[in-house]
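Page 37, top half.
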Amino acid sequence: MSNLETLPAWQALWERREAIAETSISGLFAADPDRFERCSLELDGLLLDTSKQPVDDTTREALLALAQAREVAQQRDAMLAGEPINTSEGRAVLHTALRVPPEGAGWAGRAVADEVRHTRERMIELATAIRAGQRTGATGKPIRHVINIGIGGSDLGPRLVLEALAPDADGPAVHFVANVDGVELARALAECDPEATLVVVVSKSFGTVETMTNAHEVMAWLRRSVPADDVLERQMLAVTANLERVGELGLDPALALPMWDWVGGRYSLWSAVGFSIMLGIGPTAFGELLAGAHGMDRHFAEAPLEANMPVWLGLLSVLNGTLLGRRSQAVVPYTERLGHLSAYLQQLVMESNGKSVDAEGQPTHLPTAGVIWGQTGTPGQHAFFQALHQGTDVVPVDFIGVARPVAGERGDPLELTANLFAQSQALMQGRQGEHLSVARLCPGNRPSNTLLLELLTPYTLGALIALYEHRTFVEAAIWGINAFDQFGVELGKVLAVDLKPALAGAADTDALDGSTAGLISRYRAWRG
């Protein structure tokens, strides 16, 4: 695949970049009263409004030409067909197969579909027994608490979903432990009855240092606290690809749920990694979550490029981040239920597309993924919105709102939604006037997208998450990078293993750089 900057379609955009940056978004509305209708897409209770972007008809056609030149549709079809598009690791990428209805043949064929269906049936059977009190702890107490131990994709996805769907939760309380510093673990253990707690350990290798450190701490807690020899076999469940390691630690391999190498961690909440989700909200709601994601998958697969939600989100991200140099993006949900969305998207986007070489191992000469960050509104309005409105950097924003609040929840939905719509309006229009002091002026013409959900349900949440997954894929397709490896994650972890002996005083620091050696020396002195 040729470098992006050599493509005529990219060069056409590059030649217009200054004109695009200076395009008046308010002027586009003045010239086209129907702009909102032409720049909005709707699918199954999810509305995407991209009208507040600096995209006129010429830019729109140039972006579509870029998608065609980069063969976005062909790359999408190769992923869905199960071709090994993760070329650096020789793997297929089949998270979409996890969402196919049980009766479907699957995107990648019957064999994968049967494997997914079998695992889903096991999850449903086990979750139903635990939620009904038929499968108890080692002393006969029903399970009332679940501790999910994982990190990265084994934590962020389930954590996001269970917070977002808390009103639907009718099962055991789920606690999440990811950090190895011990704080999350101490908080979780303090809230749990050890005889009524199931521990779900999620690790593909069953050797992830952070996860296994926390797992060993919980194992010791269970042994100390539960008067039963089989407590680990009864109250610890592994989600992993390494069954041999499960048995070595005294857990029941027959109880383990599988992970597959064709599902990356940040795309895995739809798999057995989401077992804690199923325990919390039940198999039916989990099935609706999958159905929402599958609905977005079908839209991505079948809608023409010009009417395809993920395609437009991806193209606009490349337009702002790569063409116009706007190197960060804020994600601002106007509901506390989506408080973990920005953290989830940080991993999804930055771990997938934070690359400086293309899929063929050649350096990329244009910027790839920028920084994803954010907070819920309205608190964010009293934190970082000042910089959004008057700062020197133009930061594109994805605003996310929910039209109908959950029944019984307090709060003023009109106040919340008025703030949501007002902020995107203010970013676009700015504030000008001869009567205003310079300090009060806001330049405006700052881009945003608005995603409006009719209601936050398992279905619409599944569609929303899948939308961002596919947006990330489109970005990678345009940049020509592999979104599905993450070798940069490994380096610091490897070095940490080498540094532990020096920190403990069992190895010298002569071969280390001066900064690391100095930090270790001060750490050891302060630790005594």
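Page 37, bottom half:
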Amino acid sequence: MTTYELEPVVLEKFKNISQPRDHGMVIEKDVKIPLRDGTIIFADIFRPDIQSEKFPAIMNISVYHKDKLWIPPEDLEEPANPYMAWETANPVWWVARGYACVRVDSRGTGKSPGRCEPSSYQESLDFYDAIEWVAKREWCSGNIATLGVSYHAACQWRVANLQPPSLKAIIPWEGRADQYRDQAYHGGIFSMGFMGNWINQHMARHLLGRPRSYNPDSFQPDMLWQYMSHDLDSEWWRLCSARWDQITVPVYSVGNWGGWGLHLRGNTEGYMNANSQFKKLRIHTGDHFRPFHSEEGKVDQIRFLDYWLKGIDTGIMDEPPIKLEIRTGGSKKPYAFRYEYEWPLARTIWTKMYFQIEREQSQNEEDTEGSLLLDLPSKVNQVTYRGSNPNKAGIGSGSSAPGIGRAGVSFITPPMLSDLEITGPIVCNLWVSSTSEDMDLMVTLRNIDPEGNDVNELGQQGQPVSLTKGWLRASHRKLDPKKSLPYRPYHAHNERLWLEPNVPVECQVEIIPTCIVLKKGHQLRVDIQQQDGFGSAAFTHFHNDYNEGAFNTIYAGGDKDSYLLLPVIPTPNS
């Protein structure tokens, strides 16, 4: 299919969308919403001050306190006002354009009483009830949409499973969908860095912050224990995750190339697998909130919601369904968007680059142990590294100090002879063994410039990050053949296939999709490590005791075809 660059978007360009009117705003605080089990939860409602019309509503539910004011940075495109809340639609902007905004405190959080169960099936049922209750208000047209970022996006997948009759469209903006694979267990490895911090932060804000004065028994989750005790996939996780066959509502799935640690997989999987007849996918760059509050981002949001909630032909459904920012490397500002027709792109040239092991592990961080080549090496070679690096106290299960010495091994391509675009999902196929019963594979892709420096991208927290990552615990290497694709392995995570000492096994590591144009002279570097490596930021993992004192080995060449499967996108002249 033909693709084309998008012109810079300004709000004034689109005349066939809801225009702002100065009709005032009605604010209803602490509105009681009854649930099916007799519980009451509380919401704030912001709606147009017009009695003669009915309006659609944009809804959220979360544990983030509906009353907690978000004070954005001064350089946010959307001006601050007293009604802004973290990761949610700005009522001042949306109410002026004929929408109501409804924010709901999840059961057991903020103003809502009860026992808190973040991201749970119970929360989904409560959200369903809240949607249907709001749809019946005299001011409401009966059409409801969900819109929001992160937690406010993930809850949309789950409520869409239940198919509330009044839910007409969802925009999960940077939202994980599979609680096990996207958030808690990356490749079967517990993502303790993010989860531990998130749970502690929000528990503290409820029990040590202002909500304690009016809801002292709120936020009582035993999430960390539950997550650790359910360390294999099961119905427990499926109940609080997207069920793609049940999601039939129109979907605008919005991801962030820098969001590989939590959300991006949910957005690409959602676009591929949701059972909706009408789906769109957008992937941008930048931090976690600026694209959502940008004029360009809000144009996409209102064009989609105007179409599905107000019946306005905004033209958005006539456009190609995919809109991607194409990264060319190192920019802190947005890149140009490009329309596409499929995901993965139909014109992708799936290219295997084989690992070639050339030397033993070096202790120099800048060194590499081998190359990535288009031809499979004829001879099998191997390289060995520690399963856990010692620190100043040696090696012990009670220590969390960073290790001393080089972690893992690295491989690098020759310099690019011309610009090379890589856009889509990636697989890292590795033959490995260990002296222990298990081993962790943490794979990082890096863009290296001609001077040998990393060309970093902007992560969701505003930090520099690598291109993308993938993770797999070797005992979790079992694939689900019905869900696996040649370019995206799907691991069952329902049993452990323990390693035999020094016996090689084949592992397919799912690498979170990426987009980069590697410039002429640049190189793609792949780090394979036993611990979190370059650019991991908040998304770090718990390293189990079987790593202690172990030695891990990677094999490449001959009948041990370790390779990286890359989605190479041909240029128009290639």
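Margin note: The chain has two domains: 11-340, 349-569.
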